[in-house]
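step: validate -> pass
step: tokenize input -> pass
step: predict -> running
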Amino acid sequence: MKSVFQVEGNMATGSSLTDVYTTPSPTDYPTPPSSYSSTGGYMKPAIDLAGWMEFWDYAGGASFRAFVAEDGDERSLFAFFDVGLMGRDLKKALIAFIDLAEGPLACTQVVICLDRLIPEDDVKSLMRSFQWVGFELSTLDQWAKGIDVTSDKWLFMAMEV
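step: predict -> pass
step: emit ->
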């Protein structure tokens, strides 16, 4: 995921979605500027991130991180479901999340990223529930632009909205 969206970081200490790093201007560098072009080595991510959010469901006691990725006219809303969501009522949060994707965010797809650390029995049950709603197992192929990407941290389930 990091190679596609630049977001798969250590969630415990913060991720690139929440970190802010200021780059000093070239005039603040202690040495003269090099002849190397700073734009020559920069690789633009394949997909633009339009925004991110922390989604809170106070009724069900669930919270998770999400972001919107844009690729031309296509917008996808990604949500990260980690081990901390197990045992919580996710029904209302999921309905609100899908409504948010369809309505104000104008997304064409919702992708749930399931933490691979979720115990096997729990993840199987959760995946069955998501399949009942309309989600299917997915990969990052659509967003990776030909890069072969497999995440060792997340399983992906996608649904067109």
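step: describe -> The first strand starts at residue 48 and ends at 57.
step: cleanup -> pass
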